[in-house]
Amino acid sequence: MSGILEQGKEFLSKDSGNNNNNTTSTQGNQGTEDYADKGLDAFEKKEGIPENRGMNEKITDGARNEFENITGDNVSSKISN
Question: Which end of the chain is less congested by CB atoms within 10 angstroms, N or C?
């Protein structure tokens, strides 16, 4: 499991230069965070990874899209919007 964490840290640190306007959302739901976003933020805080709102939106949106493509079920907007 620590290998996954190290890969995640490395990936996120590569994008740390894009940290200017992290509060904007790719879907226009500015200021609102779903449970997936909050969970990723908590993970980053625990691991000492700098928060990058824009990248987090891309990660959680991508995970939601993959889940929906694989299962054919829609994810509740409460969990991931």
Answer: N
Number of separate domains in the chain? 1
Predicted confidence at residue 75, as pLDDT, reads 87
Helix/strand/coil percentages in the chain, nearest 5:
60, 0, 40
Distance CA 35, CA 18 (A): 24
- Report, as an integer, the average pLDDT of 29-41: 79
Classify 48 as helix, strand or coil.
coil
Domain ranges, residue 81: 32-81
Residue 61 lies in a domain: yes
Average confidence (pLDDT) over 62-71? 92
